[in-house]
Amino acid sequence: MIDELFAIEQEAYRDSLVHRLDARVKIIITIAAIIAIVAFPFESDVYLATAGFLLLLLILFSLSQTSIRTYILRLAMILPFGFFIIVAQIFFENPRYTECTVLVDLPLGVAIYQESLLFALMLSAKFLVCVSFIILLSGTTRMHDLLEGAARLGLPAEFSLILGMMIRYLFVFAVIYRHIQNALATRCFNALNRNLPYRYRLSTIAYTIGTLFLRSFEQGERTYMSMLCRGYGRSSHMYVTKKPLCSTDRIALGTILPFIICYPLLVYLL
Fold first, then answer.
1. How many CA atoms lie within 13 A of 55 on its CB side?
2. What is the pLDDT of residue 9?
3. Which residues of 146-173 are buried (b: 16+ CB within 10 A; e: fewer)?
4. Is 35 within 8 Å of 264 (Cβ atoms)?
5. Alpha-carbon torsion angle 7, 12, 14, 17, nearest 10
6. What is the pLDDT of residue 106?
7. Angle (CA) 191 194 199, round 5°
8. H-helix or E-strand containing 125?
9. 241 vs 14: CA distance, rounded Å
10. Is the pLDDT of residue 233 over 70?
């Protein structure tokens, strides 16, 4: 996870047409796409709506020059969180349907329902679209630019300051973790090495976790003292300058946003 954190940020520093777009444009497009696909009714037409959004994502990913391997790896990391919820749907009668047909009978009174399976497939399609847009946003926008873009869109100053501090300290925590990990590696310690006694491995991991928390706490104290020395207080806020959208950003927003709004409506009405 720590290595993936640095990889995501390094990917955001690449140069492409999508990377150069203003963070506000990408945030608006992502939120609009998520709202549009989530609001679409659970009907068979949802697959057609999903296909249109996936085609849009394919174009954006191609313009961003993001490799398929990077997308699949990030999708595989997020997929287990939604996969459990989606799979659980098939074992319960869905209240959206008046009647549920048993598709497969399992032991212990457990059954798979046909209507619930169809609902799970439609939910999977929506989940795929939402996650893909988030992956595109995080992979083409630097965290600081993402925070500034959200602040320019109206995110309260208190949230901007807290999120900014959290993002900065997240990378500090990652560096501390890497230092401890390298220290263990130079001492040839491997927690999965069964040749070492189990109690020794357990105690070493416990000491490592304790050291990680202590070093993080000490770093937090030093960071807070540094902030106080620089005038941090209750009324301190993150300063964000005004930045008008350039012509490229306006063209991208004026092209993609109408498609996101109109396409699901056309699929639903026609």
1. 10
2. 65
3. bbbbbbbeebeeeebbebbeeeeeeeeb
4. no
5. 150
6. 73
7. 65
8. helix 114-140
9. 24
10. no
For 268, residues 6+ apart whose C-beta sits below 8 A from its C-beta are 40, 41, 45, 49
Q: Which of 121, 128, 129 is nearest to 86 (CA)?
A: 121
Query: Which helix (H) or strand (E) is 237 found in, with range?
Result: none
What's this model's pTM, rounded to 2 decimal places? Answer: 0.78
**Pick from 178, 171, 174: nearest CA to 144:** 171
Instruction: Compute CA 252 distance to the chain's CA centroid, rounded to the nearest angstrom.
Output: 22
pLDDT band per the 50, 70, 90 thresholds, residue 219: confident
- Per residue in 17-41, pLDDT (tens digit) is 898 999 999 999 999 999 999 999 8
Residue 95 above 80 pLDDT? no
Q: How far apart are CA 11 and CA 253, in angstroms?
A: 23
d(CA 181, CA 190) in angstroms, rounded, equals: 10
Question: 172 is written with which tokens?
Answer: 């500090």
The pair phi, psi for residue 238, each rounded to 5°, is -75, 125
Query: Looking at the DSSP assignment, which residues form a beta bridge with residue 112?
Result: 104
Tell me how far apart the alpha carbons of residues 1 and 150 are, in angstroms, rounded to a whole number. Answer: 25
